[in-house]
Amino acid sequence: MTMRARAVVLALLLGGCASAKTDTYTLSAVPPARQAPAGVPLRPPLEMGEVAIPATIDRNEVVLNAPGDRLDVASTSIWGAPVRQLIRRALSDDLTARLPPGSVLPPGDPGPKAGLRILTVSIDQFGGDTSGHVVLSAAWLLAPSGTPPTGTPRRTRIELNAGAGNVAAVVPTMSRALGVLADRIAASVRR
Question: What are phi and psi of 190, to 5 degrees?
């Protein structure tokens, strides 16, 4: 084998061993459709409690629904933190932007807990599919701090079009869906 042929074989072998680039994603707050009302903060204030999510998305990799009851687990597209934490943080930031200043305490804030209301969110379905359709189906309850949530949860279903069925288009649309959820929660707690 010639020296040139050896170099080509070596380049092919090394190229085959190179790993694919991993893209890391997060969920972000999105600006509200209209500015948060100024004035008196909600009393008692809210804190974003735990978020329950389906096991199908509770993983490091971004997951898209695919035809035929399949899941497309994007091994080169991962979440920058546990997706449950990303949802909680984005939703808390979205609510902060939609309610009067001082109405929402950040998760884990060391502020006073007396009189605080905890917002618990349960997500039944959240994600996009390979055709670019994003769905967020969720329920929420408010309860005084230190007491379990009771009563009838409010439910909503949000459907948005990502424009494309790939992770790069679906993830920002998931952030937009959380913003719509925050709009609906904010409207319900202002009453």
Answer: -80, -15
